[in-house]
Design goal:
The complex is a heterodimer of chains A (85) and B (868). Chain A is of the alpha+beta class and 85 residues long. Chain A has one helix and three strands. In chain A, strands 2-3 form a two-stranded antiparallel sheet. In chain A, a hairpin with a 5-residue loop joins strand 2 and strand 3. Chain B has seven domains: 203 residues, Cullin Repeats (5 helical Cullin repeat like), CATH 1.20.1310.10; 122 residues, 5 helical Cullin repeat like (Up-down Bundle); 109 residues, Cullin Repeats (5 helical Cullin repeat like, Up-down Bundle), CATH 1.20.1310; 83 residues, 5 helical Cullin repeat like (Up-down Bundle); 82 residues, no CATH class; 114 residues, Cullin, Chain C, Domain 2 (Ribosomal Protein S5, domain 2, 2-Layer Sandwich), CATH 3.30.230.130; 81 residues, Arc Repressor Mutant, subunit A. Helices cover 65% and strands 8% of the residues of chain B. The relative contact order of chain B is 0.04. The chains are: A alpha+beta (85), B mainly alpha (868). Chains A and B meet through strand 1 of A and helix 25, strand 3, helix 28, strand 4 and strand 5 of B. Strand 1 of chain A pairs antiparallel with strand 4 of chain B, so a sheet runs across the interface.
Chain lengths: 85, 868
């Protein structure tokens, strides 16, 4: 008797790796969406700043647009820079 | 004529009138009047009016005398008749003659209209209307009266000198008038067209004092005396006609016409008609049918009576068109409906349930038409009630009698349900013409059938778990069965293979139709989603387009957007991931081979060599909740891939991590034994269990050791093993156990031994096959046992949240609201998802009050106030 694998379908889901449960701006869970979006996932991604804080992309963009001069992280007041991995 | 100018006023009248009077009498008697005479009359009247100050009054008086005289003669003629028919006939002949003349005689006396002396006699005819009237008249009567006016004005200027032209004009006028006059009188049998003609003529003479004088005199001298007799005779004729004897309908019509035309009240022309003729007609009709209807019903029974009533209603409508003014139609119909239907309402309605039961659509239709005439809708309501009761009881009885089959087989159940639905819809269409009220009644009843819990039910815990109170409220299993049926249609099953694409579409539509009546649509959506997940992961959809169609349809029938969006998202995932997975292959391949050459060749290589592995990466939010991770030790071949895939994914999408759902993953293995070689579709768990024997093929392995080898949690291992030792519907199982007498997975002991069935083979038609393919997955377990309970909990939990959310949503807008209104609005918001129970609403209200989202009014305990 011998058993060999012919094909296999693996199933996985993905989660955000964030340092917090909730977005510091909208207070919604990272796993759900920002208040404007209907579905979580690719359409409502997370972004990280170099200060290591993380928000819904829509939330932080909105926040930055509201800052006239110094674009700062709403959590630590360091100037905001997107952390591109 | 010019001679007369010099004479004194009085003489002018005396001289001119006797001549003219003869013409008037001729006209009244409808004798032939020559053109010249007719023209003379015009001239004579004008002449007198012009030269004699009181001429108009004198003419009026003279005319009155003549008319009265004529009428008195006519009256004696009429009174002389004894028989009713003869009386009517004579009266009508006289009346017609007179009435015709009343349209022509006033023409020559138009001059009188402008005279103030005549005015007192006419109560309503105003002088201004004389001018306006003549202008209007000229418009209506065209050539004839225009030339009249021309004649009048020219004679006013200079009577003789301009006579040549005016004579010509007035000759033509007289000719026109005379021809039409003789035409009308010759056809005084007054067909409808003739009466129409005379009514258009009315415009000319309507306001004429002379005409008024004529009619008033007639009214006073003849009509007043004999109107009761006339009326009575007319009713007798109608009565006889109702009994089937033929009579001259024109007699009745004539009487009615005289009633209408004799009205002296200009505001309300129909006053006399209404007060006498209509009243008498209505009374006669009602009396007649009151007797007849009871008689008919007793003799022929209710069913035949309905036919009778229907026929009579139509007949009377036709008759009314003949004998009555249009304004009376409605009143008559009302009265008839009262006598023919309302008075017999109860006995008719009593037949309704039996008719519905026997599907007597024709008779029901008849009954419906009759009842629909009743104004307050009482009868229709009673019928609706009967229909509703019937559908409910018949539907439930049907379900109960077949409960054995339908609780097991969702296909049968849905088909049965649809059959019932179509049957009742047919009934409503054929018997009630798809009347919206009956459609509503059907819907209500059908809702009851669909949501009924007596045949089968599912139980959901209704309380909030954290309070520790647990009880169940039964709910119909219908939504679950509907979802199962959908699954059968959409998955590759014997059923879906048998049907054409159109048939499947039609059936899916049917499902949605039934779904409309289901209260708890959230249960359907949950099951549908579970089935969909299974189909997508196993790739067993019969038609992926249809899958997406139905998502759209669900949106169309008003399923809550977030449910539907999540389904749409699942498709997107599957589509996007299949792209990803090619790239993945690429990577895995290169990692395995440890080469980094030209990517394209590798890509091709990877397809040919490694199409064995397929990774589905799902969005946690959109797919079924799988919070629980089940550990399992994968076969080495697979275990190696996992870190590679994770590594690759990390590079591809920063900030994300993968979480494996091995209970959902599955694959195909090749199983080789002495007998043959078989491809088996298995779950990853089954795979893990079977791989335990790969190194020691003939060993018996204990349950305990299997658990150590596979690292599966106890319930999952039991279930997996059970699916291998006792898979339904196959002759030879792949695993055998010792002892053999174990009847459920719960009975596996730590030392129960399992071993490979070396004789395993796929058996087809009683013969063992050497090759073959077998699916051991069955229904892919999407959730573990514990998470299934959690799932049921989560439905309840979600309902609670939705209810709270909806309450807050409403209160935020309304600020203040009483209990009843709040509940109504709440149900309206939630009805596309589920029907909140009173108890749940109450609990959630309490919870919200406790947590200070809202409060009760201090004075009124049923009033809620939103607390910001």
């Amino acid at each position: 008797m011998k058993v060999t694998i012919k094909s296999w379908t693996g199933v996985a889901s993905w989660r955000w790796i964030a340092n917090d449960e909730n977005c510091g701006i909208c207070r919604m869970s990272f796993e759900s969406t920002c208040p404007e979006c209907a579905l979580p996932g690719d359409d409502c991604p997370l972004v990280w700043g170099v200060c290591s804080h993380c928000f819904h992309m829509h939330c932080i963009v909105k926040w930055l647009n509201l800052q006239p001069l110094n674009k700062q992280c709403p959590m630590c007041r360091q100037s905001w820079k997107f952390n591109i991995h | 004529m010019l001679r007369a100018i010099g004479k004194r006023d009085r003489d002018i009248f005396d001289e001119v009138w006797p001549e003219k009077r003869k013409i008037v009498l001729k006209l009244l008697r409808q004798e032939t009047v020559s053109q010249r005479e007719w023209q003379d009359l015009f001239f004579g009247v004008h002449f007198v009016c012009l030269w004699d100050e009181k001429g108009a009054a004198k003419i009026y008086d003279g005319l009155q005398q003549d008319i009265v005289e004529f009428i008195v003669q006519a009256q004696s003629k009429v009174q002389a008749q004894r028989g009713e028919q003869a009386l009517l006939a004579t009266y009508i002949v006289e009346w017609r003659k007179f009435f015709t003349q009343s349209n022509y005689l006033p023409l020559p006396f138009r001059q009188l209209e402008q005279s103030p002396q005549v005015k007192p006699a006419s109560s309503s005819g105003s002088s201004s209307s004389g001018v306006a009237g003549s202008a209007a008249a000229s418009a209506i009567a065209g050539g004839a009266s225009t030339s009249n006016a021309a004649a009048a004005s020219s004679s006013g200027n200079q009577a003789a000198s301009s006579s040549s032209s005016s004579t010509k004009a007035s000759t033509s006028a007289a000719a026109a008038a005379a021809t039409s006059s003789s035409g009308a009188s010759s056809t005084s049998a007054a067909s409808n067209s003739a009466s129409a003609a005379s009514s258009s003529k009315k415009g000319i003479t309507e306001d004429s004092p002379v005409r008024k004088l004529m009619l008033d005199s007639w009214n006073k001298h003849i009509f007043h005396d004999i109107k009761d007799r006339l009326q009575e005779s007319a009713m007798k004729i109608v009565h006889a006609e109702r009994n089937g004897d033929a009579y001259d309908a024109q007699l009745v019509v004539g009487v009615r016409e005289s009633y209408v035309n004799l009205s002296s009240n200009a505001e309300d022309k129909l006053e006399i008609y209404r007060e006498h003729f209509e009243k008498a007609y209505l009374k006669a009709t009602a009396d007649f049918y009151r007797l007849k209807s009871t008689e008919q019903q007793q003799e022929n029974g209710v069913l035949a009576y309905m036919k009778y009533a229907d026929a009579k209603l139509r007949e009377e409508e036709v008759r009314a068109k003949r004998y009555l003014e249009p304004s009376s139609f409605n009143i008559l119909t009302c009265r008839l409906v009262k006598v023919l239907i309302v008075d017999h309402l109860n006995s008719i309605i009593a037949e309704c349930p039996a008719l519905i039961r026997d599907y007597e659509t024709d008779r029901l239709n008849l009954m419906f038409r009759l009842m629909d005439r009743v104004l307050d809708g009482e009868g229709v309501e009673a019928m609706m009630g009967d229909l509703q009761r019937h559908i409910k009881s018949a539907g439930l009885a049907d379900m109960q009698s077949a409960s054995e089959i339908i609780t097991q087989d969702s296909e049968k159940y849905v088909e049965r349900l649809l059959e019932l639905f179509n049957k009742f819809s047919d009934l409503v269409r054929n018997a009630f013409n798809d009347d919206p009220r009956f459609l509503t009644a059907r819907d209500i009843a059908f809702k009851m059938v669909v949501n009924d819990t007596s045949v089968f039910k599912m139980e959901l815990p209704t309380s909030i778990a954290n309070r520790g109170v647990k009880y169940t409220a039964p709910e119909s299993k219908c939504p679950e069965l509907l979802a199962n049926y959908c699954d059968m249609l959409l998955r590759r099953t014997p059923l879906s293979k048998r049907l054409t694409s159109e048939q499947i579409d039609a059936r899916l539509r049917d499902v949605l139709l039934v779904l409309k009546y289901v209260n708890n649509k959230d249960v359907f959506m949950r099951y549908h989603k579970v089935h969909l997940t299974r189909r997508l992961i196993l790739g067993t959809s019969a038609d992926s387009e249809k899958e997406e169609d139905i998502v759209e349809w669900l949106r169309e029938v008003g399923m809550p957007a977030d449910y539907v969006n999540r389904l749409a998202r699942m498709f997107q995932d599957i589509k996007v991931r299949s792209l990803h997975f090619f790239i993945l292959f690429d990577l895995i391949y290169s990692l395995l081979q440890q080469v980094s050459e030209d990517l394209n060749t590798q890509f091709r290589n990877s397809i040919s060599r490694h199409d064995a592995i397929n990774i589905k990466i799902l969005n946690a939010g959109a797919w079924a909740r799988c919070s629980e991770r089940v550990s399992v030790s994968l076969p080495i071949e697979l275990e190696d891939y996992i870190p590679d895939v994770e590594e690759f994914y990390k590079k591809k999408h920063s900030g994300r991590k993968l979480q494996w759902y091995h209970h959902m993953s599955n694959g195909t293995i090749t199983f080789v034994n002495n007998f043959g070689r078989y491809d088996l579709d298995v779950t990853t768990f089954q795979m893990a269990v079977l791989f335990a024997w790969n190194q020691r093929q003939h060993d018996k392995i204990s349950y305990e050791n299997l658990r150590l080898a596979t690292e599966l949690p106890d319930p999952e291992l039991r279930r997996t093993l059970w699916s291998l030792v006792a898979f339904p519907k196959i002759k030879k199982q792949i695993l055998l156990m010792e002892p053999t007498a174990i009847s459920s997975p719960k009975d596996f002991a730590e030392n129960t031994m399992f071993y490979i069935n070396q004789e395993f083979a796929i058996v087809k038609n009683g013969k063992s096959q050497r090759r073959g393919k077998l699916n051991l997955i069955g229904r892919l377990q999407l959730s573990t046992e514990r998470s299934q309970q959690e799932d049921n909990q989560s439905i309840v939990q979600l309902r609670i949240l939705r209810t709270q959310e909806a309450i807050i949503k409403i209160m935020k807008v309304r600020k203040r609201m009483n209990n009843a209104a709040l509940q109504a609005e709440l149900i309206d918001i939630l009805k596309n998802m589920f029907l909140p129970s009173k108890k749940m609403i109450k609990e959630q209200l309490e919870w919200l009050i406790e947590h200070k989202y809202m409060r009760r009014d201090d004075d009124d305990i049923n009033m809620f106030i939103y607390v910001a």
